[in-house]
Amino acid sequence: MKQDNFLEKARWSGFFALDALRGGRVKERYRQDLKAYRYGTSVEETRDRIRKLIRHAVATTAYYKGYDPEVPLEQLPLVDKNIFRDHYDDFRSLKYINAAGNRVMTTSGSTGTPLAMVQDKRKILCNTADSIFLGALAGYHIGEKTAFIRVWVNNVKKSRIRQLAENMVMMESSSLSDDAIRGMLDTIKREGVKVLIGYSSALGEISAYIRRTGEDMSAYRVHAILPISETMPDPVRDQLADQFSCPVRAWYSNEENGIMGLQDKEDNSYYINSESYYYEILKMDSDLPAEEGEMGRIVITDLTNYCFPIIRYDNGDTAVAKRTEKDGRFRLILTELYGRRSDLLYDTRGNAVTPYVITNNLWNADGVGQYRFLQTGLTDYELRLSGDRDRMKPEDLVARIRPALGQDAKIRVTFVDEIPVLASGKRKYIENLCPAYKKS
């Protein structure tokens, strides 16, 4: 045990010693993130960062070349993944297009064709510092034995040497069968893993397996769990925390931007790193700012990527935000994070319904192994169930969720052998297929 701790501390110290030899830029950024977390981000400095980014985009990219370099951020167009794909080369900065040290990050493609996003060296450095800071805030320090659970496509796979250097185990989540989960747990125990990072759905499947099998958790050494990419229902989060006797705090992240925020210890709110990202929350049905407390669309301006400027990016997620300002510094909290707009459910009167209504009511229902809830029409829904049919009580499950959707909701129950895993390795529990609500 002592040897493990010594080597882990040596990795942490060694990383920052190497960074110091290179100018200490990661450490400097880490301290900047820490200051912002404690005191907020400077309003004036944020304005300057946005202005510099816009000037750069106008001067060096084809997409923005027709704009006045002093144009206000709010007057620039919103962009999304489809626009990035259709005008990919137009977004690439001529100044950085062939710069040494660029890297390409590719989205998972869970909701469409994968998107390749180029990042420059400064963006990579900021991502590294942000990840280290938001990890440490959650109880994870680089160098600790970590299991990373995701689909390991070629562009993100790590070599054995890199895994050894980072003290990390790559765990493949393309299969979440009982045998696959049993193998993961055996490795986590055998390797003395201390930190679990992975897709929320994969971690949820592991938690369900532990509950279902009565796994003895006394020999596990995990002390921090960080779900990524998908929203984790409160009951699953609480169950994981209880099973491993450690905090579970989700990162808010995506491949194209990086790790942008961290979930609070107690609730569903997320602290957003405003040193690297400027957020707008816009109304669901227009491009006007949402009122405080109103659910809206997340629009991101990445303040650090000059190779591929990401300005006013509507990433498809929805949230309720609260911004506070004091002494020229501000802080942004997402009090609720709902996930993909295309997956939002609506009741029979057309009001948006939080996905937690479904996940919180179905996560531990007797006999239910897996489920998927679909909205197929304005008042039509389908609940797909996989599990022990003798123990499941469909009428009880429907009764749990009908009040949130409307008493006139038509909810069909379908039994299936398995809820399939997406190519990205995530399992989609909720989806809106109603043509009236379907977004492009």
Characterise the protein shown here.
The protein is of the alpha/beta class and 440 residues long. It has twelve helices and 20 strands. A hairpin with a 3-residue loop joins strand 8 (251-254) and strand 9 (258-263). It is globular, with a radius of gyration of 22 Å. The mean pLDDT is 89.
Give descriptors for this structure.
Rossmann fold, 8-stranded antiparallel beta sheet, 2 domains, 440 residues, 20 strands, globular, alpha/beta
- Give me the count of strands: 20
CATH topology of the largest domain: Rossmann fold
The major beta sheet can be summarized as:
8 strands, antiparallel
In the predicted model, the low-confidence regions spanning at least 5 consecutive residues are none
CATH class of the largest domain: Alpha Beta
- Report the mean per-residue pLDDT as an integer: 89
β-sheet strand percentage: 25-35%
| Termini gap | 52 Å
Summary, kept brief:
This protein has 440 residues and is of the alpha/beta class. The chain is 33% helix and 25% strand.
